[in-house]
Design brief:
Layout lengths: L2 E3 L1 H9 L5 E6 L4 H17 L4 E6 L4 H6 L7 E6 L2 E7 L4 H29 L1
Parallel strand pairs: 1-3, 2-3
Antiparallel strand pairs: 2-4, 4-5
């Protein structure tokens, strides 16, 4: 199950996370948001050890929605090391979303594998 966050838990769970975090800004009235939930749950099952997937109800977290300029729902933002790596706004279809997320997560995973090797390379 995708972890649901609020403004209090956002800093610890996203900005201070040691792994990449995919944040799904959604709203309960957003039909398209509900359509991508199965895709995100599938990614959570497939990538759970590599990336954390969380959901944020934009209607209940107006400050966060404003901070990250959420104008379209759903909006997916990938954070790594507290910084925004990639942003996906709207819905392009399940297949397109699946391809984009898989490519993005593979790139992020390779980046983390390389950075973990850096100390060994430099010593």
């Amino acid at each position: 199950m995708v972890l649901s966050l609020n403004e209090r838990s956002f800093k610890q769970e996203v900005l201070e996370a040691t792994t990449p975090v995919l944040v799904n800004f959604w709203a309960p009235w957003c039909g398209i948001c509900l359509l991508i939930n199965p895709v995100l749950k599938g990614f959570e099952a497939e990538w759970g050890e590599t990336v954390k997937i969380v959901g944020i109800n934009a209607d209940q977290t107006l400050k966060l929605a404003s901070t990250y300029r959420i104008a379209t729902l759903p909006t997916l933002i990938l954070f790594d090391g507290g910084s925004i790596i990639h942003r996906i706004e709207g819905f392009q279809g399940r297949d397109d979303l699946t391809r984009e997320l898989r490519s993005l997560l593979l790139t992020t995973q390779k980046s983390h594998s390389y950075s973990q090797l850096q100390p060994a390379i430099n010593s």
